[in-house]
Every structure is written in C-alpha cells, then in structure tokens.
Amino acid sequence: MKLPKFWIHLFTLSLLLLLIVLGGCKAKSSAPSTANPTTPPIATGTAVTLSGSLSYDLVPTANGKLNYAGTVQKPMRKVYLELLNATTGATLASTNSNESGYYTLATTTGISLKLRVYAEIKSPPIIIQDNTNSSAQYALVTSNFTLSGDTVRDVRAVSGWSGTNNAGSYAGTRVAAPFAMLDSLYTISKKITTARPAIALPLLRLNWSINNISVDGSNSSGQIGTSHYSSYDKQLYILGQADVDSDEYDKHIIVHEWGHFFEDNLSRSDSWGGSHSGGDAKDMSLAFGEGWGNALSAMAFDPDVYYTDTYGSRQQSGFQINMESGADTNSGWFSEASVHQILFDIYDSSNEAGDTLSLGIGPIIDVLTTYQKTTPASTSIFSFITGLKINTPSSSSALDTLVATKNISAINNAYGSSEVNDGGWDKNLPIYNLLSVGGASVPVSLYGAYVDNDFYGLFNSIFNNKYLKFTASSSKTRLIVTSTDSFQLDVYNKGSYIFTSTMNQRSSGGVFGPFPYDVTTVAGQEYRINIFTDRSVIFNKAALVNLSVSATAL
Amino acid sequence: MKQVMTLFILIASFSLLNIASAKGPKYSNLLCKQKYIPMKIEQSLDSHLLSVKFTAQRAIDQFTIKNVRGIQGVKVTKFQEQNQSNIDSGEVLTSAVELSDFKGLAYVVFDVAITLEGVVTDHSIPVPVGSLSAIQKAERSKNIKTIKVPSLKKEGSSPLSAPDKKIHEMQVD
Fold it and tell me: What's the CATH number of domain B4-133, 1.10.287, 3.40.50, 1.25.10, 2.60.40?
C-alpha cells in the first residue's frame, strides 16, 4: 500500500528534526516507512545497527622533530572493540574494525551504551599495555549514548597536544599514542604476512607509558633505559616521557624493535645486545641484528627511508638516518650501517651504483626463517648472504658486487672465510679460527673491555669476542686453553648453547692454564666456540689477552 | 637533618654491565640501545642541592650543558652552564643544580650537546631525584579498571578461573 505524499514529507521533516536533536550522532535515514509519521518511535529493544569509523591522530616527523601542526587522522585498522551496557558494564557485542577503520555492531534501542576500543589486534595478535600499571591493556572508552535507530558514530583518539610545535604541550590525555604504535606494528606484520602468508606471528605485547623514561631502573616504575625488545619476556618496551624522549610516533623505532622480536621468535639472533651507533665496529651478530631492524623499518614504510628518532623539549630535537644512502664511515661486516644499506638494497626497487637487486622482502624473510635460523655459524651478514645465495643462486654475482660496496669480500660461506677487512686490527682475522681436532693449538687474541668504552669497545665489539670452529670426530671432545689472563669459553651447536667454562678468573701470577674442558659432541657436526673476557676480572690489568686453544677427541 | 642520597645512573654502561653479567647461556636482556651517550653519570643529592658528575668514557671534542630543567614536579632554581672542549677519556666534569618543590619521584633533565669526531648530537639526560610516593602511585593508577573475566567451563569439567583483566581506560568524547 502506498502512503500519501503528505505523510511522506511530514515523516522526512520529523526525521530531520530528530537528527538535529540527537547531535553528535550521525543517523542514517533508516526509520521504517511504516512508523507513525507524527511521532517517530524510540522503542526499547528494537534491533538496530551501530557503525562508524575509528581514527587516531598521527603526529608526523619532519626534519627529525615531531610536527604537531601536521597532525593527520589515520584509521585504526583491525582493532578490537566492544559495545558495552553503560549501566551494567556487560559486553553486548564485539567486533574488529576493517582495513579502513570502519566497524559495525548490532544492538538494540533504548539502552545506555558506550564503546570500548582496545589497543589490540586479534590477528596477528598484538596488545599495547601499560608496564607501569600491572600491564593493564590500553583502551579508549566513549561517553554514554542511547540509540533510537541505526546510527553512525565515529570515534577519534586525539594526541592530547595543545598549542604550537615550539610552545605547546600535552595538555590532554595521549589517547592516540597506543593506537599509533599498534598501527605501526600492524603495518610491518601485514607486510611480512602478505609476502609470506604461512608465517604465524606469535602474540606480541608492547609496553608503553607516559612514565617510560630513559633511566635504568625497574620496568614497573617506567625506568626502562631506552626503547628496546626484551628477549627475557619477549616484549617491547617503548619510551613515553614527554620532553625527554617519547617514541610512540617514531614509527621506524617501533618497527626496528619489532625486527628484534621477529629475529628472536622466528629467526635467530646471536647478538650480545648493548650500546651501538653508526661507525662502530661491532660484533658481527650485533651489527646484523641492528642493521636488520633499521632496514626493516625502511621496508615497512617504503618510500619513507628516514629512520627518525625525536626527543628533547617538546620533541623538537632528534636525528634522521637515511637507510638507503646515509653515512657509513667505517664500512664492513662489523658495521650496522653497512648491513642495513645492503639489506635495503636487496629489497628496494630503486637501484644505484653497485646495486642491481630488487628482490623484495619475501626472499629476505625466507633466509631469516630457514638458513639463518639453523646456521652453525654466528648470525651475521656472512650467514645471511650465504643463505640468500643458496635460495637465489641467480643473484650471487650481484650480491658479491653489492657487499663489495661496503668493503666486504665476496661471501662464499657463513664463516666469512674469504674476508680481508680486519676492522683495524689484524688479530680480527680470520673471523673464525679453524680448530683441527687432534691438530696444533690455535692462537687467539682479544681485548677485555667491559667497563670503559674506548676504542676497544664495551663488550660487544669485534675486539672483545673471538670465534673458533671445529668439526667433532667423536662423542666427546676435549678443548684445552692456556691464557695470559681471565677468560670464558662458550660452545654452540647450530646456534644452541651447549657448554660454558664460566669466567675462568685469574687471581695470581705465574702460568695460567692449561685448562681442559670436556664437551659432549656428535661426530661430523660443526661447533662454534666464542671466547671473551671481562676487564673487571683481568689480573694483570692489561686489556690485551692472548690465548691458545687446542682440541682432542676422547 | 641532612640527608644524603647517592644514586648512580650509568646512562650507557650500567645496564650494559647487567647485560654482561648475563653472558654465556643467557643472551642479553636488552637487545637494543638506540642512543649512545659517552658519559658515565653519577649523582648525589644533599637536601636541595643536586651534584652531578659526568665522566667521559671516550675522548669528547666538546660537551655543553645548554639547559637544566625539572619535570614531574621538581623546579630547578639555579644551575651552572658548562662548555668544555677537548675532554679526555676518564676526565670528570661536575655540575651543581639547586632544586625546589619536589615531592616523590621527579627528574632533573640536562639538555646537552656532545661533539664526537666532529659530529654534534643533542641529548636530554634525565636524572631521578626521590622515589615514587603513594600519591604518585594513586595518580598513575586512577584510570585502571579491573574486569572480571567469566570462568571457562567445559562440559563435564569444573570451571577454570580466568585472571581478572586490567584495562587502562582513556576517555574520549
């Protein structure tokens, strides 16, 4: 039955009036055509739809600073949200936003409602939580509202910043921060799983607080040292203290730390960790891990290749590193800058002198999750390139050319046996001293330098760690060490630690050693030995330690 | 009563020593240190006078204290500017800062510029004073909600109790 035109016009007018009264909510023209045209019903219990868009404020970086004036709204992609009964707190419905930040929920009219949007993505599982408040999960909640029909309700998480870049401050709650970090993590997770759908990312918890400050102390107090990945609990900790150092909008840092999460959970890292910066000659595993994190951040936000860290008063200090062509003052297998430029050149589609590769991220992930994970050598640019050559033999020549631009010899195996760049000390070569079981002893020299950070590093430089390798010929191998001072010897098989001598501390003069260590081995398998020392326990106070190592089959 | 509290904040090396002690079968806790400050920093607080020692851990071309400010409740009433060139490894620089109005945990932030091998980098170095008070703890946790999670019950078995869920709620309009 058709309604007379008069009633239709009257109904439309009533609906428009209702829209004005509701304010704040944008209602769709969805009232049923059979409703009483003079008094639109606000029935309780009628099924309706609540939908809308979720967004967060993204504060971009510009010239190494946060640019609040350039703040833009970005969609909250794939976040989990709940519709709550505002009176009882009961969850009435839940869903996940889509790739554009839109959500749709089914509910009924006449109930006091509110939305709770979690800083959480269900797939891949990511949760942003507050390490200074019992790991409470961040969520935004809306004010209460009641629906009378299908309704569009948009939700925006604001940055909380008020004022200009140079004279403003965080006057409001920093609601956007957890969602900004969540979105950065989603960006890289999606990039990886799109390239390699079979990869299942484990649950990641990112800890952030406005109290997270660059002081070493307890995580629960917010004194987290710096933004970092902790292999202890497999979680990320990100700085948040405004006017000192806050990293929630430093998206490359978020992804860099995620790179460590990826290495630790799906690949392998033999990194010692510790302080590092461009130009350092670091242990090859640390150089690879940090270079991987740097390069990954540029891959995630390609073509934004500027790794940016903002800090200081009003977040108006900072620095940028160009992952494609930044400075690399001490290039080589020990340089994180060399590693990140090599990895990015392997990935990117723009080529330059020495770079003819454009493999994308898939082949890089393939190596990290297979060869790099099981290599008997320490994880490094040597093991990575070796794995990549195995997987993509047609790229071998181009890889040789590429690494040569960084003063790295053509890589033919995971041990870097053809390397000629000694990083400034001839004792740094060979990278792996070959130990022949039943053969002659091998001399090794290193510097112990835990306390002072000078030319020879803290503990994670190429001067502090020496490597040997041997192939076992029996079920037990005796390693014999003599030394001029205190030392520790660790043995690994395919990346797994199998033996430690603990720190053998010299406490008196005279001959130190020989010390025999019996290690359970499997005939035919390769083993890696790492030797290092600690300046604080060196007896003769000299930083240089000379050792001699031999192996016999038992 | 004169109360003297000495804290050591080894901005770069303290945590690294912790890492170092975990060497061997346990890999480092911190996998990444993004920013390197080549100074060991020690502080002592005598009533309202904060004394800070900056010990160079390598040769530094230039070290400048550009500003000193307080955050989280502390006020800096007086500080000494520093501008030192050609600092040798192991050389110690000191700075005295007068503070007022601090209760509980607060931070004094040194805005410095360090020149290494001709490259100037700015740093904001926070130095803690005091410890977290009950009022501060209450303020930090005021938006924390605890939600009871329903027990999981499988047919034919007793319910599995789930831990309460804590949520840091942030209100939006």
Answer: 2.60.40
